[in-house]
Design the sequence.
């Protein structure tokens, strides 16, 4: 059985990574004796529409063109934050005869005969709608809290003095800057200095290197 892993985190910084998702789904695939055809990793907000998530689109196309048997994701939200988009993705998978496994929900879309159970669409619609409502509630509470904080005289944004000075950056990233001055490629600098590619790109632009 051929499987594809799609892993996504919302943050484009180093605060989040896809390692845990990939490790857990790989273990599941090995346990089920699946052959992992390819692993797709993406750092992009789940609030983006599916068509605006290039790696996700690539993963879906790969599954279709390579006759992949099952798509493995860590949870339903990896397929999108919008209930309608999640259902559209599920429909595409069903139409192509591609199964779906969601680790958090412990749910598999198709049965042994390759057909979705009569409860599968209902369950997915319910889960995705509840998740979307919860996100909207959290967003409302956060915005309400911020507004109350501002009304009481609070100020949002960085605290004064929290932003690093040019001198501090030069000292902290001196090796990065040194490699950039040598003409070392951005990806190689990131690897050599153990920092993210985005950090190197930001420093390169800031110091005109």
Sequence:
């Amino acid at each position: 059985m051929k499987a594809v892993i799609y892993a996504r985190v919302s943050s484009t910084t180093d605060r989040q990574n896809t390692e845990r998702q990939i490790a857990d789904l790989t273990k599941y695939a090995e346990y089920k004796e699946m052959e992992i055809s390819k692993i797709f990793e993406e750092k992009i907000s789940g609030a983006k529409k599916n068509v605006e998530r290039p790696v996700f689109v690539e993963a879906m196309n790969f599954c279709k063109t390579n006759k992949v048997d099952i798509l493995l994701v860590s949870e339903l939200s990896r397929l999108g934050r919008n209930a309608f988009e999640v259902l559209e993705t599920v429909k595409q998978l069903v139409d192509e005869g591609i199964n779906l496994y969601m680790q958090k929900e412990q749910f598999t879309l198709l049965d042994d005969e390759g057909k979705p159970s009569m409860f599968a669409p209902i369950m997915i619609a319910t889960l995705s709608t509840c998740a979307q409502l919860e996100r909207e509630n959290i967003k409302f509470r956060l915005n309400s809290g911020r507004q109350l904080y501002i009304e009481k005289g609070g100020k949002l944004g960085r605290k004064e003095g929290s932003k690093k000075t040019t001198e501090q950056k030069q000292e902290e990233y001196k090796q990065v800057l040194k490699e950039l001055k040598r003409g070392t490629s951005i990806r190689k600098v990131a690897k050599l200095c153990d920092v993210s590619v985005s950090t190197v790109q930001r420093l390169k632009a800031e110091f005109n290197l």
Observations:
- The longest helix spans residues 120-151.
- Residues 87 and 122 are 10 Å apart (CA to CA).
